[in-house]
């Protein structure tokens, strides 16, 4: 496979960065500033649980295109209402919470693996996060990508085939020359439907210590690795 | 101005990389392989002379969107025909010539200046080159941009306001927070019309030793510098 692939496209939330730890930490800081006590990890999980349904409504045409910051804000407002915390988080605190998704820690093996892979392949971030969000996140975490791609460029969310096809078209390659790397079976299923090759990258802590992440056995893929350095080695870097 | 700017958008051909030297060198190599003797610098100049008119036809709606590789190929075919060289360059040689624009040398001060500027600002490549072309070029020249933007994302060419506005929208900033940096007065005029701030970066050798490049006196801009390091110093980096 190695000789045919020219582009590696990486999912970001959960695959390249640790959203669970990063969002929970910032929720905790912002809540503390507001004088609110809450279980920040459970809050981050409940917020993330609204992620796939909110994007599905866009992909299904139930609503017009809205970028991820807007979906995050709407699901935050809903979550605060549901948890009867609405009065405790003002506009500024809510804006800061939404921006928590712009600044998340890379998994410890990501920079080393990407640095090695970049010598041989074009590395693209291919995320459901907005273009600005991913640009900020990649910069803050020093992730050595060659370019940022975003579902925003296709105005449709993964796993809809449109964002994968837009990435392939912009990079001017055949779809089978692109390897989608993700920790989620649903992302790889979408990539395969669009003609891309797929690599499952296992991130057992992706949803924190209390909830189960996708495992290799759950995913159908051309390649399966347990981390970024193993991916570099599997691809001859 | 420094405190208001958050994004620096850089023109690429002529401003960040030396297209004249890079294209002429590759034209010379490919022509030599084909057994053709020609003046490679004059050929590169004549090819580049067809650049602005070819983009204007797209912006004016005289033809559908076509990315820069297509325009380069069409103007190459036209140039070879005009110079009665058509029989001497086969399909493969023409493909290689078009790809010459994907691999061009950075100006000697570009990497140092960009590296300093990147500590404080988001750095975007904002070029009329296609998304794949600019991704390849930035990677090959080790230019430390945070993201690649391209006229292709707006399906319109600078100086039309659409590519500048698309860049501003994708980066989710106010236009006046973006500083467009270019060696061409026409690019800065387009950026200003779209509400961006402007910096003229002088590249006197941009068109080679025999033709005059734009000079500071020709351009209207908020800031004028003679190089990337001076730009970094002017912006406090």
From TrEMBL, chains A, B:
One of its GO terms (molecular function) is hydrolase activity, acting on acid halide bonds, in C-halide compounds. It comes from the Bacteria. Keywords: Hydrolase. The keyword Hydrolase applies. The keyword Hydrolase applies. Gene3D superfamilies: HAD superfamily/HAD-like, Putative phosphatase, domain 2. Pfam families: Hydrolase. Belongs to the HAD-like hydrolase superfamily. S-2-haloalkanoic acid dehalogenase family. This is 2-haloacid dehalogenase.
């Amino acid at each position: 496979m190695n000789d045919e692939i020219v582009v590696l496209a990486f999912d970001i939330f959960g695959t390249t960065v640790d959203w669970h730890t990063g969002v929970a930490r910032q929720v905790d800081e912002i809540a503390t500033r507001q004088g609110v006590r809450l279980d920040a990890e459970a809050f981050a999980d409940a917020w993330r649980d609204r992620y796939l349904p909110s994007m599905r409504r866009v992909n299904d045409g139930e609503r017009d295109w809205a970028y991820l910051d807007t979906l995050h804000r709407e699901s935050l407002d809903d979550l605060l209402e549901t948890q009867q915390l609405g009065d405790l988080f003002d506009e500024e605190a809510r804006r800061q919470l939404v921006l928590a998704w712009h600044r998340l820690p890379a998994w410890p093996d990501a920079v080393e693996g990407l640095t090695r892979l970049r010598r041989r392949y074009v590395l693209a971030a291919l995320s459901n996060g907005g273009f600005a969000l991913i640009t900020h996140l990649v910069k803050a975490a020093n992730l050595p990508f060659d370019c940022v791609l975003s579902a925003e460029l296709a105005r449709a969310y993964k796993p809809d085939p449109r964002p994968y096809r837009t990435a392939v078209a912009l990079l001017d390659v055949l779809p089978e020359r692109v390897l989608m790397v993700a920790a989620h079976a649903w992302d790889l299923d979408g990539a395969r439907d669009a003609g891309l090759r797929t690599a499952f990258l296992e991130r057992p802590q992706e949803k924190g210590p209390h909830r189960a992440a996708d495992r290799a056995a759950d995913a159908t893929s051309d390649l399966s690795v347990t981390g970024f350095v193993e991916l570099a080695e599997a691809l001859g870097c």
